[in-house]
Amino acid sequence: DDVWFCTDIGVFRKNYRTGNTTHYQNDPADPKSLQTNLIYDIFKDKDGIFWLSTPQGLLRLDQKTKSSTQYRYNPNDDSSISWDDISEVYQDSESNLFVCTYGGGLKLMDTKNGTFLSFRHDDEDSTSLSGNIITSILEDQSKDYWVGTWTAGINRMDRKTRKCKRYLPEITIS
């Protein structure tokens, strides 16, 4: 019954059965409120947690407590998100949570401890991602991942080895 709207003034939840609207937004006096109002995308995981993509990191929104947790880049922590501009969040069939970034590659989040494993482009490794501006990710029937990039083509990432086969813009997918 709920529809969620991402805006530049926070997130709105509209319940069409009751007619009620809830507005989640930044409140500088409340550290549990959203840390930013500009929200690009929202994703609800299998546990009912909402993940918000923002230019200031990843936000975890618990609608029961109406509190949020922010995950931001920390240059002194290799397990941090390593990039703040988040484009999309995706959960695969085994509940792995992936975070796509505008410049920091693809992240696999350990939701229990809030740490991230990074997959990035490496000029010296032809099996790495073809670029670091990640626009999308999907899991196919064989459980491999298709990772879309901005101007650097598509990558098929093997689920087990995490190595990529690149399909660059000038190459035909067969």
Describe the protein's architecture and organization:
The mean pLDDT is 93. It contains no helices and 15 strands. The chain has strands at 2-7, 10-15, 21-24, 41-44, 50-54, 57-62, 67-71, 86-91, 97-101, 106-110, 115-119, 134-139, 145-149, 154-157, 164-167. The protein is globular. It is mainly β. The strands form four sheets. The protein has a four-stranded antiparallel sheet, with no helix packed on it. Strands 8-9-10-11 form a four-stranded antiparallel sheet, with no helix packed on it. Strands 12-13-14-15 form a four-stranded antiparallel sheet, with no helix packed on it. The N and C termini lie far apart (41 Å).
What topology does this entry show?
Blueprint: E1 2-7, E2 10-15, E3 21-24, E4 41-44, E5 50-54, E6 57-62, E7 67-71, E8 86-91, E9 97-101, E10 106-110, E11 115-119, E12 134-139, E13 145-149, E14 154-157, E15 164-167
Antiparallel strand pairs: 1-2, 2-3, 4-5, 5-6, 6-7, 8-9, 9-10, 10-11, 12-13, 13-14, 14-15
Concise structural overview:
The protein is mostly beta strands and 174 residues long.
User: Uncertain regions: pLDDT < 50 for 5+ in a row?
Assistant: none
Give the biggest beta sheet.
4 strands, antiparallel
Mean pLDDT: 93
Q: Helix amount, in percent? A: under 10%
* First-to-last CA distance: 41 Å
Shape descriptor reads globular
Order of helices and strands: EEEEEEEEEEEEEEE
Number of helices: 0
Structural class: mainly beta
Query: Could you tell me the radius of gyration in angstroms?
Result: 17 Å
- Largest sheet strand order: 4-5-6-7
Q: Tell me the fraction of residues in β-strands, as a range.
A: 35-45%
